[in-house]
User: What shape does this take?
Amino acid sequence: MNLTQKTIKAGMWQLTSMAIRFVVQLVVIAILARRILPSAFGLIALANMALVFTEMFAEAGIGPAIIQKKDLRQEHIRAGFTLAVILGTFFVVILWMAAPLLAVLFKSETLEDIIRWLSLSVLVIKFGMISRSLIEREIRFDKLMWTDAGSYVFGYAPVGIAMAIMGYGVWSIVAAKLVQCCLQSIVLFAWQPHSVKPVFSTRAYKEIGIYGGGLTLARLFDNTASQGDVFIIGRFCSVTLLGIYERASSIMAMPGQYLGYLLDKILFPSMSQIQDQPKRLEGAYLKAINIVNVTLFPLSVLMFVVAPELITVLLGPRWTDAVIPLRILLVTLNLRICINLSDTLVRATGAVYSSAARKAVFAFLVIFGSWVGQRWGIAGVAIAVSLAVIINYSLMTQLSIKLINCSLNNYLGRLKDGYVVGGVLFLISFFCVSVLRLCTDSALLTLVITGVCSCLLSGIAVFLFFPGVLNSSVFELLPQLVDEKYRKHPFFCRLSEFRKNNL
Assistant: This one.
C-alpha cells in the first residue's frame, strides 16, 4: 500500500472516529449545559488554561519529534518516554504548587482543587504519548479511532452525564476528564507497547530536543494566544461570563476541531515522509486548504444564520447571551483551520522556528485586543480575537506559501469554491430561517428544516449554476473514502461522469 492509499485509509478511520465522537459530544453538551451552571464551565476553562501550558512544557515537542524523525531508532523511543515521564512529573508538581496562587488571581477558592485534580491528567497522558506517536507515524489511525472514540464514549460521556445528573456540578467534568485520560493511555500502550527502560545516550536526548525545543517555542506563543481571551475574561469579568464565552467558543470550534484534527493527524505523518519533495508537499497542502474552505466556510455561514436556534437546542434557553459571541467567532472559523494546516506544514518540514515570531505577534494581538475589548463585554473580546486570527492567518499563509514555493494566485484559486458555496448557502438559509421564524416558535423545528432545506437547495443551485465547484478536492476525494468494492456504485459513476462533462 503506497503513501497516498495509506493516507486515504487513515482518513476513513479518523472520519469514523470523528463521527462517533461528534454525535456523542452533542448529547453530552446538551445534557451538561442543562445540569451545570455557566460559572462551572468558566472554572473548567480557567483550569484548562493552566493545563494547556503545563501539557505543552511537559510534552516539549517529544511526540511530534518521534513522528517527524526520518531515522528513528530505539534509543530515540526510550529517550522520548523517559523525558516525557520526567517532564510530566516535574510540571505537575509545579502546577500543584501554583494552584493556590491561580485561585487567588481569579478569586475562586474552588479553582485550587479543580486545577490540582486535573493536573494528574497531564502525567497520565505521558504514559501513552510515545505509543500514540508511533501509531501516528505508521499512519495506523484505525487504532487511534477505537482509542479516542472509545475513551470518550465509554469514559468521559457516562461518567460526566451520571455525575451531572446526581448533582456533582463542576466535578462531573473533572472526573470525566480523568477517566478518559486513563482509558486512553492504557489502550494506547496495549496497541503499541514499547520499551520503558531509561536510556543514557546524550545524543538521543539532544536529537529529540532540537526539534522539540523549536516546536515548544512556537506552541508557547500559540497557546498564549489561544488562552489569552480566557485569561482576560476570567481576570477582569467573571467566571459566569467566561462560562458563556467558553461554550460559544466550543460550539464554534467543534466542526473545525474535528476536521482540523482529522487533517492534521493524517497529513503530518504523510508530509513528514515527503518533506524533501516540494511538489508533493504543495499538492497535499493546497488540497487540504481547498477541502477546509469548501466544507467549513459554508458550515460556518449556516451556523451563523441559525445561531439563536443552535444555542437554544444545544445549551438551553438560559444560554442566549452566547449567540452574539458565537456569531462573531464563526466569521473566522475556516481561517483558524487553515492556520492549523500551516502549522502542520511547518512541523512536517521542521521549520518550527520560522513560525515562532509570527505566533508571538498573534499572542500579543489577542491579549492586548482582549484587554481592550473586555470593556464591551464578551462580544468585544470576540471581535478582538477574530481580528487577531485574520492577521495570524495572513502571516502563516505567507510562510506556508514560501515553504512550498507556491504562487499566491494558485493559493487563492483554492479558496474560491468555498466562498461560492458559502454565498449561495447564506442567501438560501437566510430566506428559510426568516420564513420559519414567522411560522413556528420551535427552535428545533426551525433548526432542522433550515439545515436540511438549505443544504439541498444550495447543492442543487451550485451544481446547476456553478459546476466548476465540482473540481474541488472534496469531490475528488469522496469516492476514495469508501471501500473499493463500492466505488462502482451508480452514484459515484454518475458523479465522475458529471465532473468530466462539466469541467
About this structure: DSSP finds 20 helices and no strands in the chain. The first helix runs from residue 3 to 35. The chain has a mean pLDDT of 82.
